[in-house]
Amino acid sequence: MYESKFHVVNDLSGRLKYDTGLGESKFVLQELDLLKEDSIVYKLFGPILVRQDPAEPNANVRKRVGYLTAERSALMQLSGTWERSKLSKESSELVLDKRQ
């Protein structure tokens, strides 16, 4: 019982983490798409703002969206595998109970 609750909580917190990061990254992409070609972009390094080429943050955020999407898909597959193994275990326990 404890193990199943742990997996459910862990699974939900993992999904929430990736969904939140994905939503934030997509919002940043929308903001970056609004920039004009001659816009100036700065990156915060500690207390210092450093000027950046606008294409660099755009590429970084797109890479992050790809990473988060892949990690979320992997988590969903793992969750599905865990659910199938849980159902298999429960059905085998029911069969054993019927035999006894």
UniProtKB/TrEMBL annotation:
InterPro entries: PFD_beta-like, Prefoldin. The keyword Kinase does not apply. GO terms for biological process: chaperone-mediated protein complex assembly; protein folding; response to cold. GO terms for molecular function: protein-folding chaperone binding; unfolded protein binding. Keywords: Chaperone. Pfam families: Prefoldin_2. GO terms for cellular component: cytoplasm; prefoldin complex. Belongs to the prefoldin subunit beta family. This is Prefoldin subunit 6-like isoform X2. It comes from Cucurbita maxima. The gene is LOC111496966.
